[in-house]
Amino acid sequence: MIRVIFTDGHISGSGYCSMKKEQVANCQFSVWYPIFKKHTIKSQILPLPQNVIDYLLDDGTLVVSGSDHSTQPTHTNSYNSDAEEDVQWSDDETTTTVTAPEFPEFTSKVLEAINALGGCVFPKLNWSAPRDANWIALNSSLECRSLSEIFLLFKSSDFITHDLTQPFLQCSDQDSPDPVISYELVLRKWSELIPGGEFRCFVKENKLIAISQRDYTQYYQHILTQEQNISHAIQDFFSQHIQYHFLDEDFVFDVYRDSQGRVWLIDLNPFGEVTDSLLFRWDELTSGGEAAQQLQQDGPAFRYTMSEVTVQPSPCLSYRIPRDFVDLSTGEDAYKLIDFLKLKKNQQEESEEEEEGNAPP
Ligand SMILES: Nc1ncnc2c1ncn2[C@@H]1O[C@H](COP(=O)(O)OP(=O)(O)OP(=O)(O)O)[C@@H](O)[C@H]1O
Ligand SMILES: [Mg+2]
Questions:
Q1: Fewer CB within 10 Å of terminal CB in the chain, N or C?
Q2: Could you give the CA distance from residue 258 to residue 284 in angstroms, rounded to a whole number?
Q3: Which ligand has the nearest atom to the CA of 144?
Q4: What confidence tens digit (pLDDT) does each residue in 316-332 have?
Q5: Which of 130, 129, 126, 103 is nearest to 182 (CA)?
Q6: What is the rounded distance in angstroms from the CA atom of residue 147 to the CA atom of residue 102?
């Protein structure tokens, strides 16, 4: 597994949370999807066989034999052109050939689901998408057309590893037994969501107390000018379709407001620090109810980035390797590769000259 590990709020906690294991279990995709199916993106859920889970957690092998592409004639990704070959890795001392395991039955189920969803999907596990791994995909996107693309993202993602290994890490009831989890591959129809239309909504005791712009690193003028409309549309959506329908009274839901003003449910998340509070702080949302009550005096508090000045670096940035490495490794920018090799050669020559210069007479 290629892994660049940096921590962020996603896997650290500082103690405001009283989130229970049961609440986390309730936020699994397969729990909420049947309840809110009409209001969210069309999706399919496939049980993950144990040997696939083992493969995803196995650090030794990367990706992938390409036999799952045979029914995908429209696929243009260059990643697949040599797909029938084994993946070869070499270093100075040894050359190792890694043959990826194959899962023919699972592969054909996945392909069938992808086709039924229009050919392009957004993949998730029970809770998380591999958002921290999109840099490794050739198109830098989570858009997948095959199981090998899904595996590449999943095997490179700490968020996916977190789902598989420690989903209850931040729960307050550590002494109680973990709920039994059946792991699932979630395939969602790929939809081009405009980041400025995404909002995260915090629900405490079945009241919508706060709404945050989801992509808070950017300033979107339309949010400033349509603040009232957006807030009302989300409040209406909540009271008509979400409130009292979910298994918990505390939760966080994500929505998308499309260009026609229609609101869609994107995801449900636990009410606690495992979920990014974006433009709020968890202590504001939870502290003894007082701050939370203040927030909702006149309807939910609505926070968004007010101007270009406050724009912040993108939160997944720390998960990326430098763009130059990506270009080099994928051969996307041939000139960069040539420059890199020239640089290396110059460096070598310089150090050779230095060595010669320093040599004893
Ligand atoms: N079906 C889809 N097609 C294309 N993009 C999507 C789709 N679903 C979600 N996205 C994009 O991916 C982002 C992350 O999706 P999602 O919230 O499901 O992942 P997550 O792992 O639960 O994230 P978080 O950890 O923030 O809760 C969304 O904000 C949206 O921009
Ligand atoms: Mg989520």
A1: C
A2: 29
A3: 1
A4: 666 665 555 555 555 55
A5: 126
A6: 11
Handedness of CA 90, 93, 94, 95 (dihedral sign): positive
Extract the residue ranges of the chain whose pLDDT is less than 70.
1-17, 60-100, 288-297, 309-361
Alpha-carbon gap, residue 41 to 255, rounded angstroms = 11
Which residue's CA lies nearest to atom 5 of ligand 1? Answer: 191
Q: What is the largest CA-CA distance in the chain?
A: 88
Give residue limits of the domains in the chain. 9-67+101-189, 195-306
In angstroms, rounded to a whole number, what is the distance separating the alpha carbons of residues 105 and 325? 36
Q: Is the dihedral of CA 195, 271, 248, 184 positive or negative?
A: positive
What is the spatial distance between Cα 158 and Cα 253, in angstroms, rounded to a whole number?
22
Q: What are phi and psi of 210, to 5 degrees?
A: -155, 145
Confidence (pLDDT) at 138: 74
Cβ of residue 131 lying under 6 Å from some atom of ligand 1? yes
Give 88's strand partners. 97
CA of 271 to the centre of ligand 1 (A): 17
Which pLDDT belongs to residue 16?
A: 59
pLDDT of residue 226: 96
The strand ranges marked E within 190-319 are 198-204, 207-213, 251-257, 263-269, 301-303
Q: Residue 45: beta bridge partners?
A: 186
User: How far apart are the CA of 68 and the centre of ligand 2, in A?
Assistant: 28
- pLDDT for the residue numbered 256: 98
Give pLDDT tens digits for 31-46.
Answer: 999 999 999 999 999 9
Question: What's the pLDDT at 2?
Answer: 33
Which of 9, 42, 35, 13 has its CA nearest to residue 248?
35
State the Cα–Cα distance between residues 70 and 111, nearest whole angstrom.
10
